[in-house]
Write a structure and sequence with these properties.
By secondary structure, this protein is of the alpha/beta class. The protein is about 45% helix and about 15% strand. It is built from 12 helices and 10 strands. It has a 10-stranded mixed β-sheet with strand order 3-4-5-2-1-9-7-8-6-10, sandwiched between helices. Strand 7 and strand 8 (about 285-290) form a beta hairpin. The radius of gyration is 20 Å and the shape is globular. About 45% of the residues are buried.
């Protein structure tokens, strides 16, 4: 297989990242021809740099899959390179950050049946794993949840290999989540996509942000874990505020409505290795294009083109991911299918004071009327 290799120095990568961040704040209509050429040059550099993370990402994803199966017979494992808009937003939010040092340009994720499996998997990485790569950072957002309500465990590794030294020192992020934590993150991304708000980055409506903080604590209570900072410690007070915001935001209607809006799903694929998803909420459309393992470069090129198309359409988004099958795709990335059923169940249980048993993500199967074609 032909993998993308880094073609530019880290100095040029950092300069290009800085220019992209600055360009995202500029008005393109006032650019000179020279500025436009420089922008597209920088775009090529950034796209090459993130695509080059594909090889080490694939290695660590395979390791994650084997490790997760020690603690969950049917983990959902996926990988992706970071979306260009997310790269630009992160560089804008953190102006001193260098693109070459960004930790999550390549990321893989395991979604496990419960929080116990998550903790055992993370502990194995820390104590028993024979992984040869260098652990750069460990963030336990279960014992110490983010103020946004996000929970999960993140490990960042520096790739190390005597055989493939071209990729040495590239950073890959491993995320480990329970199915309930994943349902929370899915709902945040779904609302953000369809409402045009960067809720995932803690930007946008204060009421929506507060609602998800409270729901983060609801999930933490269900998993018997520490609550989200700044949320009520008493369950009665927590549910009272949650009920008010759920009614004020009309959460149930909105979440159910998003899935109904997304009625035009086109698959240009069967079971492949890479999947390019292009979502246009305003048109209610999702286009899925599959690529076999040997078409890594083609997939990366079409992904970059899809991102440029999405820039001109409000709310549009594109992402290139890798999972085992089209079925696994809908489970690993339900936000692109506007599927928040598990989150709605968790919300309903919290408001009614009950806990319906959910054995795992697979209980929620996806049944869309899909259009097909190439």
């Amino acid at each position: 297989m032909s993998w993308v290799i880094p073609e530019f120095s880290r100095e040029e990568v950092n300069r290009s990242g800085k220019l992209l961040a600055e360009a995202s704040k500029e008005q393109v209509a006032f650019w000179t021809i020279a500025m436009t050429k420089q922008y597209f040059r920088s775009l090529d550099v950034v796209n090459n740099w993130r695509a080059a993370h594909g090889y080490p990402l694939n290695i660590l994803q395979n390791n994650l899959r084997k490790t997760a199966k020690r603690f969950d017979k049917n983990p959902i494992v996926a990988q992706r390179v970071k979306r260009l808009p997310s790269i630009e937003l992160k560089l804008v939010r953190f102006p001193n950050m260098k693109l070459s040092q960004m930790q999550d340009l390549g990321g893989c994720r395991a979604i496990l049946k419960n929080v116990g499996a998550v903790k055992r998997t993370a502990l194995y990485y820390m104590t028993d794993s024979r992984i040869k790569h260098e652990l750069a950072t460990l963030d336990d957002y279960i014992d110490k949840p983010k103020s946004s309500g996000y929970r999960g465990v993140h490990l960042v590794y520096r790739y190390r290999s005597d055989k493939q030294q071209t990729y040495n020192d590239l950073k890959i992020e491993i995320q480990i989540r329970s199915q309930f934590q994943h349902a929370w993150a899915t709902a945040v991304e779904t609302v953000g996509m369809f409402s045009g708000q960067a809720l995932k980055s803690s930007l946008g409506s204060d009421k929506w942000q507060r609602f998800f903080q409270l729901m983060g604590s609801v999930v933490a209570m269900r998993e018997k874990s520490p609550l989200v900072p700044g949320t009520p410690e008493g369950e009665r007070e927590l549910i009272r505020e949650l009920r008010y915001l759920a009614h004020e935001l009309d959460v149930d209607t909105k979440l159910n409505g998003y899935s109904k809006v997304l009625g035009n799903i086109t698959e240009r694929t069967t079971d492949e290795h890479y999947y390019l998803m292009e979502l246009t909420p305003s048109q209610g459309s999702l286009i899925i294009t599959g690529f076999p393992r040997q078409e890594t470069e083609k997939a990366s090129k079409m992904y970059a083109e899809a991102e440029q198309r999405a820039k001109n359409i409000p709310g549009a988004d594109a992402v290139l991911v890798s999972v085992d099958s089209i079925t696994a795709l809908t489970k690993a990335y339900p936000n692109y299918f506007a599927d928040t059923r598990l989150f709605v169940l968790l919300l309903g249980d919290a408001l009614t004071g009950r806990q319906r048993p959910v054995t795992r993500v697979g209980d929620f199967r996806f049944g869309f009327n899909r259009g097909h074609g190439r």
